[in-house]
Amino acid sequence: HRMNDSFSCLGWFSPGQVFVLDEYCARYGVRGCHRHLCYLQELMEYAEGRAVIDPTLLHYSFAFCASHVHGNRPDGIGTVTIEEKEQFEEIKTRLLSLLENQIVHFRYCFPFGRPEGALKATLSLLERVLMKDISTPVPADDVKKVIRKCLEKAALINYTRLTEYAKIEDTMNQATPAKKLEDVIRLGELCIEVLQQNEENHSEAFAWWPEVMAEHAEIFWSMYAVDMDAAFMVQPQDSWDSFPLFQVLNNFLRGDAHLCNGTFHKHLQELFVPLVVRYIDLMESSIAQSIHRGLEQETWQPVNNGSATSEDLFWKLDALQMFVFDLHWPEPEFAQHLEQRLKLMASDMVEACVKRTKAAFDAKMQKASKSTDYRVSPSVCTMFNVLMDAKKQSAKLCVLAAGQEVRALTVFACVECWICS
Questions:
Q1: What's 131's DSSP letter?
Q2: pLDDT tens digits, residue range 102-125?
Q3: Which residues contact 366 (CB under 8 A, 6 or more apart)?
Q4: Fewer CB within 10 A of the end CB, N or C, for the chain?
Q5: pTM (two decimals)
Q6: Which pLDDT tens digit goes with each residue over 286-303?
């Protein structure tokens, strides 16, 4: 009746039941090995029926039977029947299969790490079952090989169930490109959540095999990569809606010591490098054209710290640099290349703005009256403010994070020359 509430008892007898069984076995001469073999059979049947059984209880009975069969008998009985030995080998094979299945389904057999310590006890029991006798420990590589095989299967099962939960397979075949990208982003967030749960609830049990858990995660991500690549293939050219996906995945991967710059992380970077380069190329061309058109039509009316064109220029350059910074590109060389390119771009554009403003100022001054009662027009003040703001903005937009100046001195020189003149 205790197994009707299996999660409470976890297969353990009550103190009264233990007393009755001890009395019965002592009175009728039931052999200790036979008693624990019967325990194991009954407990495995319940476990295979998805009842929660404490692996420590299985470990206790198995260790008792193993020591009895291999000659180190704690109960002092000097014989073991052939039937008991054969039954033990059958139970050992069956128990090994049960444990492997539980490790494969570790997220579902031990949800959120419950019962506490059960997964760790299961791995300990697996190591004991793999021993050929009671005194010879199993090689660590053999245990790792079995766990690696189980976690490879676990990755497939976890991802399959996740896609079923998210209903990805039903929508990926017939959805529009925008819908596919939306589903892939949502699926990526769910994948991150699954791996975070694994880290929080199960990493302690697998602490002896961190590289195996990393392989498990890479296999898991490799399955996600198939759906991600399929969604990318149907996206229109020059579509920038996929950048949030990179930020979500990269922010997670770069924070994991085992996954950072791993197989999937590198694949993600290779997928987005052309997109980032293309985006910067188009933005550079767009900003350059907006400067040219803006200065041709500039009325030199004051807007904040400068003119409409200068304010638009500095805002766009700052927004582009912040966008690339928020990507947190994990590969140092490419990240440095992006930073240097943006700083050079900003330096060239700010310098062009300064020179065009200087030319407009000179033209304005040539038309101005030379009398002693000359009054400065608001447009001249705006031009001067543009130069002052350019000098201020160049200190932020044209200097690398490492402190190396990228032609910022050229902008400073232009401004100083204008002031002196």
A1: -
A2: 999 999 999 998 889 999 999 999
A3: none
A4: N
A5: 0.85
A6: 999 988 888 888 888 888
